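User: We ran a pulldown and think these components assemble together. Before we commit to crystallization trials, I'd like a predicted model of the whole complex to look at. Sequences follow.
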Amino acid sequence: MTMARPNRRLALFMGFAVVFLAALFGRTFYVQVIAAPALKEKANAQAVTTVTLSAPRGNICDRNGEVMAISEESASVYADPRHVSDPQKTAQVLAPVLGVSEEELLSKLSADCGFRYLARKVDQAVGEQVRALDLDGIWVSSEAKRVYPKGALAPQLLGFVGGDNDAGIAGLELQYNKVLSGQPGQAQVVHSLNGHRLATLSLKPAQPGRTVTLTIDADIQYETERVLTEVVEKFQAAKACAIVLAPATGEILAMANTPVFDTNDFASSSISEGDRRNMAVTDQYEPGSTFKMVVAAAALEAGLVTPNTTFKLGRDITVYDVTVHEAHAEDLPETRELTVTEILAQSSNVGAVRLGLEVGKSRLVDMIRAFGFTQKLGIDYPGEIDGHMRPPEQWFGTTIANVPIGQGIAVTPLQLVAAYGAVANDGVLMQPHLAREFVEPWARRVLSSQVAAQLRQMLTVTVDDGTGRLAQIEGYKVAGKTGTAQKVNEKGGYYSDRFVASFVGMVPADKPQLVVLVTVDEPKTEHLGAYVAAPAFAQIAGFALKVLGVPPSETK
Amino acid sequence: MPTPTRLAWMKAWEADLTPSPAELRSRARVAARVSSTRYYGRRVPATLYYGREATARLPEQVPTPGEAALERKPLPELKVVTRRRPRWGMVLLVVISVALLLGACVVAPVMIRAATADLESSLGTLQLTEQKLAAANSRLSAQVSALCSPDRLAEQAARLGLVPAQSLGYVELGPEQAAPEGETVVAGR
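Assistant: Here's a predicted model for the assembly, 745 residues in total across the polymer chains.
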């Protein structure tokens, strides 16, 4: 009996120990395995925060690496009106710093809410000033702001951004939004109770937006816009646009529109919706005489004529019930003989209609389609429209009298410059494009090399001895065509006093490096393309030749 | 005949076998304990249990009928030991090992966490610095771009009296003459 007692005690103790250990083990198992996910979630909710790592938006640069659009840090000032002790005084203090009226600030500070922006994306220095004031309920945060450091340069082309994340909403900012935006990252960070960062649980780094390098040359773009602005002022035009194209590659060196405005301040400016459009891509117009090249090309390509084929022409020509007159019929003899080259050089309407009749509807339509006037060229710019041509089966008998002189058909400035680019590029049409990367431009032959050379020669005569004399550039041979098109009115007819003056040409004519189109909408003091657009062409092309270092056609 | 060394060792051995007074007292206590145990019917001379660290196994006894009645369990083996000298070195080793183990289990994670937190803090600071530098870089790039924008250059050029060239300039590359020709405009006039 006396020996059993200690053993029993020992057994009892061991039993308790085993039960305790079992309970401990069970609890541990519960905590570590069964309840682990819920507990982990609870703990994470208290200490782990998910931080979004913003991806800086990529830059837009010109072909020489000059920054045209960049994102930089700015300050945004906001308030928690519930914590603003004295709204009146706070508004009084903040108004001069933020440049906002006291009344506006007071209404925001008196709002019944917990958050209200007072100023967004202001200069960092302003943010520092507000921080230094240390006002109750006023906070300053950091935000990326899109900046266009060149100011008023290519605003319609670059477009702009909007929204909280600075997403592209127009122009190239929209076109390349995915490339520019990058991918935001995410990090799960553990913080201590006092907010110190303790550990990073997971990290998905942000991928910054990529830089988009354009084919645009900032200097040529500036000069083009400057010249256009001058032209618009000089001829009191509604607006103007110009495109400078490198025909061998399809690269667009400049694409300018008026009016020019500073995108940095566009929100506060009074620029109308229409003026923000890039009319070179989004607007179509009847090309007028610049379209005569197409009918000449069709005739040459079909072998119906040579540049020296002569036509006996009157002052007008009647096709069914439509009579087409020469532009200045009263100064012309009753009949005259013109070669195909002279028809282009003197921009003869009657001659163009005769050529059209020779070519016929089918060949003419084929040529128009081959040049790409009836479809979008697929330029890397949003909102491109295609041209407009009545379907061949719906042509009237008189249509063949209109289309050769650039009426009854609508094209975009981009389509027209691309077509002349094909002539400049030995008959191969290169897809025009604006970015040096992300685009694989297509190319297709439109004309034979021989016909392209003939057309260049004929267009050289137009500048040397024809209507395009004011497009001449000292030292360089220029080939080009003037155009003066009446604008279509709402009734389907034509305004007698509203014109689109244009000139499209290439230089040097023997081996073109540049094709430049200038269109001026509704010039008032003068309406002929030869006087309005041709000199602008000479200025723009002359400047671009110097910038690109293209040697003169002639040496001394 | 043993060698002197062997003799000396044997003397020492015998001397060592001679019990000390304390040992004698211990033996007496053991004998008294043994004799008082009810499992042993008669006193066993203490001399039976002499010897250092000897294991005492009692001689087999023939139990009396009364004892046989009482004896229901097999006798446990008893081990009689003398006091050992404590092994302080081993104890120290164990204590140090345990301490190191505890240190490894408790202190090391704390230190690792501290180091991690320190690194995280440094990482956070560096990321902040990187952000600031990137922002500064963007700001400076924008400034540079603005300063070399065509309109500003044109304005600066006009201020200096420069005008766009009105005509082409040709350079004669002949051996005797290397002078520019064409219209020249002198800046500032």
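Residues 88-147 of chain B form the longest helix (60 residues). That may be worth checking against your pulldown data before setting up trials.

User: Thanks, that helps.
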